[in-house]
Write a structure and sequence with these properties.
The complex is a heterodimer. Chain A is an alpha/beta fold. Chain A has 2 domains: about 160 residues, Alpha-Beta Barrel (Aconitase, domain 4); about 30 residues. Helix content of chain A is about 30%, strand content about 15%. Chain A is globular and about 65 Å long. In chain B, the strands form 5 sheets. Chain B has a 5-stranded parallel sheet with strand order 5-4-3-6-7. In chain B, strands 17-16-15-18-19 form a 5-stranded parallel sheet. In chain B, strands 11-10-9-12 form a 4-stranded parallel sheet. The longest helix of chain B has 17 residues. The chains are: A alpha/beta, B alpha/beta. Chains A and B meet through helix 4, helix 7 and helix 8 of A and strand 2, helix 2, helix 3, helix 5 and strand 8 of B.
Chain lengths: ~210, ~475
C-alpha cells in the first residue's frame, strides 16, 4: 500500500452532501477485473456529457464544462473537500481506486459512509472528517482564492490552512500506523496466525455445524 | 455478566483478539463471493503467494453481470463475460463451491445464502457487497466489505474491525393492509436519514418486526445500509428456525438440535442497553414512495412532491432543487400523479417468493398500462423462479404484460442490459434511487412490490390501500 505522511496539495471542492459511490465510479466500469483504469472515469456521469462506457476512446469524450473538477484551476488537485455522508451506498472499492488514480491523496468531509471510509485506508487514501464549520470555511477559501492549498500532516494529525491556522483531525491509531508505514494489512494479521488457529479450534468445538 | 445486546453476543463470540485501542480481529464464518468485487482479491492472493484459509466457508455465485434473458448461448457482452469467467476460473482453481450461471440454484447472492441455509444464526457473514446486511435477518453479524477486505478474509478468515455502537429500531403494532417490510424500511430511513445509522449496528425489534416473515426481515435488514448502518439484525425466534429447517446447507439430525439450542440464545437480553433507540408505530406507516435521489427523500404515497421554497437552510434547499431537477419533478405535484415508463420487480431487496406473491395479488386479471414501456419481474434465484412457476405466478405476470426473466441483480444497478434510458421514470422495488443507478439519466422511485405492480397497471403511482 502507498504510504502517506505529509502533503501540501491543491484543493478541489465537492460542495454537496450524500455523494454516493455510484456517482464516484458508475457501475459500467465495475466490470474490469484489474485495479487500474478507474481514474479516467471518476465522476464519469458528472464529468462528461457523453455516456461513458468501458474501453472508449478517452480523447473523444465531451467534458461537462459546468462540472467543478473540469475547471482548469482544479487540475492537479490532490485534496478533495466534501460535505456530509461522502461515499454512501455501494461497497465498491473501485471508488477509492478511482479517486487515487485521478490524483487525490486526501478526502476531507463533514462525515463519511462507513464502508467507503474503511476502503480508503486499505489503499493509502487518507480520509478525515472535519467539523462542518471548518469545511465551510475551507470551501469559502477555495471559492475565493485560486490555487488554494492545504497541508495535511499525518504524524501530527493536522490540517494547516493557508492562513497558518492549524486544525487537528482524529484517526484510529492502527490506521495511522498502516498509512505511515504503507503496511500490508494481511501480513500484519497473519502475525496472529496462531491465535486465529486456536480460536478456530475452540469455535469448531462449540459450534461444529459452522464447519463443513 | 451484564446484560448484552444481540450485537454484543455476536461480536464477543467472534473475537480473535481486541487491542486496547478497540481495533479487533473478528473471525468470519461465512464468506459470500460474487464476480464484481472478487477478481482483484484473488489476484492479490496470487501476487503474495497466499491461499484461501477456509474453502468450506466460501460460497460463490455470479449475479451482478448475468443476463436475465435466455442464457443458453452464454453472455454476449465480452467484458461481462470475462468477469464471470474469471469468477468461474478462480473458484475452480481453489475448489470453492460456486453456483454457476446455469446452475438451477444460481441467483442473487443475498437471496441464495439464506435460501440454501448457508446463512445461519450466530454467524459472522461478509461479502464484497453493501447489501450483505440482508443476512442479519437470521441474527447474524453480516456486513458488506471492500475488495481489500475480501482478500483479507480469504487469506486470514478474519476481518479487522472496530465495534460499532448499538441502535434498536422498535416497530410496534400492526401494519396496515397492503403494507410491507419495504414500507417499514423506507419509513425508518425517512425518519433517521441515510446517515442516521452510520457507525451503528441496528437491531430491528418490536411486534411488527416479530410478525414479519423471514423474507420481510431480509428486506428490512437489506435496507439498513441505506440508513448508513453496515449491519442490521433481527433476533432468533420460531420464524427463523422454521425457515431454516431442511435447507441444504443447514445442520441435520442431532447437530440440528444442538444448533437450535444455541440459536435460541441469540436475542438481546431484556435489560440490555442500546446507544440509541428509535420507535415507530406500525399503524402510522403509509405506503412509501421515494421522490428524490437519496433513499431518505421519501414520502407517503398520499403526499406531494416537496417545495424547495419552504426550506430555509440554503444547502438543503439546493440539494432538494438539484434532486427535483434530476428527477424531472415539479414541487406540489401529488405523488399519485407521477406517471411511470418502466417497472422493475426484483433485486436483493424484493425478489423473494413473498414479494412476487404480493405483486401478483395486485394484478387481478388486469393489464399493464399502455404507457408503460417495460414491466420486468426478475426472481431472486432459480428456486424462487421455480416456486413461482409452480404457483402459476409466471403465467399471471405474463398474461398481464410483465416480462418474466432469469435470476440476477438486473435493473437494480443495470450492469447487464436491463436499464433505464435517460429521463425514463421507474417504479422499482430495489434499494437505491441514486442518480444514474438504473441507467444514466434514469429516474428511480423506490416502492414495495405491491406498489410497483399497482403502478404498472395504472401507469402511475396509486395508493395500494384502495386497491385491495
Amino acid at each position: 500500500m502507498q504510504k502517506f505522511e505529509r502533503l501540501d496539495g491543491l484543493v478541489a471542492p465537492m460542495d454537496r452532501a450524500n455523494v454516493d459511490t455510484d456517482a464516484i465510479i458508475p457501475k459500467q466500469f465495475l466490470k474490469a477485473i484489474g485495479r487500474t483504469g478507474f481514474g479516467a472515469h471518476l465522476f464519469d456521469a458528472w464529468r462528461f456529457k457523453d455516456p461513458g462506457e468501458p474501453g472508449m476512446d478517452l480523447t473523444r469524450r465531451v467534458p461537462n464544462p459546468d462540472f467543478v473538477l473540469n475547471a482548469p484551476r482544479y487540475v492537479g488537485a490532490q485534496v478533495l473537500v466534501a460535505r456530509a455522508n461522502f461515499g454512501c451506498g455501494s461497497s465498491r472499492e473501485h471508488a477509492p481506486w478511482a479517486l487515487l488514480e485521478y490524483g487525490f491523496r486526501v478526502v476531507l468531509a463533514e462525515s463519511f459512509a462507513d464502508i467507503f471510509f474503511n476502503n480508503c485506508f486499505k489503499n493509502g487514501l487518507l480520509a478525515a472528517d472535519l467539523p462542518a464549520e471548518l469545511i465551510d470555511r475551507i470551501l469559502q477559501g477555495v471559492a475565493t482564492q485560486v490555487g488554494y492549498r492545504l497541508v495535511v500532516d499525518l504524524p501530527s494529525q493536522s490540517v494547516i490552512l493557508p492562513s497558518g491556522e492549524t486544525c487537528g483531525f482524529e484517526i484510529e491509531p492502527v490506521r495511522k500506523r498502516s498509512l505511515l508505514n504503507g503496511l500490508d494489512e494481511i501480513g500484519v494479521t497473519l502475525e496472529n496466525v496462531d491465535a486465529i488457529g486456536a480460536f478456530e479450534v475452540a469455535h469448531r468445538a462449540s459450534q461444529p455445524w459452522l464447519f463443513a | 455478566m451484564s446484560a448484552q445486546t444481540l450485537y454484543d453476543k455476536l461480536w464477543s463470540s467472534h473475537l480473535v483478539r481486541e487491542d486496547a485501542d478497540g481495533s479487533a480481529l473478528l473471525y468470519i464464518d461465512r464468506h459470500l463471493v460474487h464476480e464484481v468485487t472478487s477478481p482483484q482479491a484473488f489476484d492479490g492472493l496470487r501476487l503474495h503467494g497466499r491461499k484461501p484459509r477456509r474453502i468450506d466457508s466460501i460460497l460463490a455465485v455470479a449475479d451482478h453481470n448475468v443476463p436475465t434473458t435466455d442464457r443458453s448461448g452464454g453472455i454476449v457482452d465480452p467484458i461481462s463475460r470475462l468477469q464471470v469467467d474469471t469468477l468461474d476460473a478462480n473458484c475452480e482453481a481453489y475448489g470453492i463451491t460456486e453456483f454457476r450461471m446455469n446452475d438451477p440454484r444460481q441467483g442473487i447472492v443475498h437471496v441464495i445464502g439464506p435460501e440454501q441455509g448457508a446463512t445461519l444464526p450466530g454467524m459472522t457473514v461478509v461479502c464484497g457487497d453493501s447489501h450483505t446486511s440482508t443476512h442479519g435477518a437470521f441474527a447474524c453479524l453480516a456486513q458488506g466489505i471492500g475488495t481489500s477486505e475480501v482478500e483479507h478474509v480469504l487469506a486470514t478468515q478474519c476481518l479487522v474491525a472496530k465495534k460499532s455502537r448499538a441502535m434498536r429500531v422498535r416497530v410496534e403494532g400492526e401494519l396496515g393492509r397492503g403494507l410491507s417490510a419495504k414500507d417499514i424500511a423506507l419509513a425508518v430511513i425517512g425518519q433517521i436519514g441515510t446517515a442516521g445509522g452510520t457507525g451503528f449496528a441496528i437491531e430491528f425489534a418490536g411486534s411488527a418486526v416479530r410478525a414479519l416473515s423471514m423474507e420481510g426481515r431480509m428486506t428490512l435488514c437489506n435496507m439498513s445500509i441505506e440508513a448508513g448502518a453496515r449491519a442490521g439484525m433481527v433476533a432468533v425466534d420460531d420464524t427463523t428456525i422454521d425457515y431454516l429447517r431442511g435447507r441444504p446447507f443447514a445442520p441435520k439430525g442431532e447437530m440440528w438440535s444442538r444448533a437450535v439450542a444455541h440459536w435460541r440464545t441469540l436475542v438481546s437480553d431484556p435489560q440490555a442497553r442500546f446507544d440509541r433507540e428509535v420507535h415507530i408505530e406500525a399503524a402510522s406507516i403509509e405506503p412509501q414512495v421515494t421522490w428524490g435521489t437519496s433513499p431518505e427523500m421519501v414520502a407517503p404515497v398520499s403526499a406531494r412532491v416537496p417545495d424547495p421554497a419552504a426550506i430555509s437552510d440554503p444547502a438543503k434547499r439546493e440539494a432538494l432543487e438539484r434532486a427535483l431537477a434530476y428527477m424531472g419533478l415539479t414541487p406540489g405535484v401529488a405523488i399519485t400523479e407521477l406517471e411511470v415508463d418502466k417497472v422493475f420487480i426484483g433485486s436483493c431487496t424484493n425478489s423473494r417468493i413473498e414479494d412476487l406473491r404480493a405483486a401478483a395479488a395486485v394484478i387481478r386479471g388486469r393489464q399493464v398500462s399502455a404507457r408503460v414501456k417495460l414491466a420486468l419481474v426478475v426472481p431472486g434465484s432459480g428456486p424462487v423462479k421455480q416456486q413461482a412457476e409452480r404457483e402459476g405466478l409466471d403465467r399471471l405476470f405474463q398474461a398481464a404484460g410483465f416480462e418474466w426473466r432469469e435470476p440476477g441483480c438486473s435493473m437494480c444497478l443495470a450492469m447487464n442490459d436491463d436499464r433505464l434510458m435517460p429521463q425514463e421514470r421507474c417504479a422499482s422495488t430495489s434499494n437505491r434511487n441514486f442518480e444514474g443507478r438504473q441507467g444514466a439519466g434514469g429516474r428511480t422511485h423506490l416502492v414495495s412490490p405491491a406498489m410497483a405492480a399497482a403502478a404498472a397497471i395504472a401507469g402511475h403511482f396509486v395508493d395500494i390501500r384502495g386497491e385491495l
